[in-house]
């Protein structure tokens, strides 16, 4: 296994399948999206950057709630799907570790970064750019795979920061970083953020009728996601 994930748009080859899966999928629709949207709070009239916007499922909901939506993803096909789903959004293909050269300092109110941090090799550079473009009083909401769940699946040392390759149940092969929670916290701090809230989301109550087995397991085991709301550190 290499020591990086690389810039290949891994989801490009199964972007349409991912849209079908994530639209109503248990993990996305009943765990991650509700948690992230709740942490974002009121978005009406605010400029939101949806970083790693995928096929536009978050973007669609944010626009419906009154946000002015900017979006980026490294997958050209994902961006095509976003344009179709949210015609009013401003979307572009962009590699996350590269500078956000089209965004001025302090130009967005909120940043959503859902389930994509583990695919970025230079996370410190990316987080510094997020800090740069956030306005005073803004916030970054990010989610990631729960590091305990990663460790339970892959074994080894929980504290090792490493790249793994995994084949998901849909047959999709993905590479991503494993990292302990302290590494995520340190990277946020080094980029000038303070963690305001940290959640370990459990499924919404109505998910019990959708998949009772997953609902029960994710209600008691840390094998799903983490969600964090971080704010710019004053004076940085």
Topology:
Elements lengths: L14 H10 L1 H15 L6 E5 L5 H8 L3 E6 L2 H10 L4 E4 L14 E7 L8 H11 E12 L1 H8 L7 E6 L5 E6 L2 H10 L2 E7 L12 H7 L6 E8 L4
Parallel strand pairs: 1-2, 1-4, 2-3, 4-5
Antiparallel strand pairs: 5-9, 6-7, 8-9
Protein name: Methylase involved in ubiquinone/menaquinone biosynthesis
GO molecular function, one term: S-adenosylmethionine-dependent methyltransferase activity
Keywords: Methyltransferase, Transferase, Ubiquinone
> Quick one: CATH class?
Alpha Beta
User: What would the principal axes of the Cα set say about the shape?
Assistant: globular
Largest sheet: 7 strands, mixed
Proportion of residues in helical segments: 25-40%
Low-confidence stretches: none
Estimate nothing, just give the exact number of structural domains: 1
Radius of gyration: 17 Å
CATH topology term:
Rossmann fold
Order of strands across the biggest sheet?
3-2-1-4-5-9-8
Strand content: 25-35%
Q: What is the number of E strands? A: 9
Structural class: alpha/beta
Mean pLDDT across all residues, rounded?
Answer: 95
CATH H-level homologous superfamily name:
Vaccinia Virus protein VP39
- Reported CATH architecture: 3-Layer(aba) Sandwich
Number of helices: 8
Describe this structure in words.
- The protein is of the alpha/beta class.
- The chain has one domain (10-227): Rossmann fold.
- It is 33% helix and 26% strand.
- The strands form two sheets. It has a seven-stranded mixed beta sheet with strand order 3-2-1-4-5-9-8, sandwiched between helices. The protein has a two-stranded antiparallel sheet with strand order 6-7.
- The longest helix is centred in the N-terminal third of the chain and has 15 residues, at 26-40.
- The chain starts with 14 loop residues before the first helix and ends with a strand.
């Amino acid at each position: 296994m290499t020591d990086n994930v690389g810039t290949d748009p891994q989801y490009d080859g199964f972007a349409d399948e991912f849209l079908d899966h994530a639209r109503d999928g248990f993990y996305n629709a009943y765990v991650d999206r509700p948690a992230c949207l709740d942490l974002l709070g009121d978005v009406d009239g605010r400029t939101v950057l949806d970083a790693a916007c995928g096929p536009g499922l978050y973007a669609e909901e944010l626009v419906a709630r009154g946000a002015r939506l900017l979006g980026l993803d490294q997958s050209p096909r994902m961006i095509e799907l976003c344009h179709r789903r949210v015609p009013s959004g401003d979307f572009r293909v962009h590699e996350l570790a590269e500078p956000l050269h089209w965004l001025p300092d302090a130009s967005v109110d909120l940043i959503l970064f859902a389930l994509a941090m583990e695919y970025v090799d230079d996370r410190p550079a990316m987080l510094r750019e997020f800090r740069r473009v956030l306005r005073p009083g803004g916030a970054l909401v990010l989610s990631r795979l729960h590091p305990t769940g990663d460790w339970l699946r892959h074994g080894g040392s929980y504290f090792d920061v490493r790249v793994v390759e995994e084949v998901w149940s849909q047959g999709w092969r993905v590479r991503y970083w494993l990292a302990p929670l302290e590494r995520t916290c340190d990277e946020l701090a080094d980029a000038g953020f303070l963690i305001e809230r940290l959640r370990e989301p459990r499924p919404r109550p109505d998910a019990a009728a959708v998949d009772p087995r997953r609902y029960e397991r994710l209600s008691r085991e840390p094998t799903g996601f983490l969600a964090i709301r971080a704010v710019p550190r004053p004076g940085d």
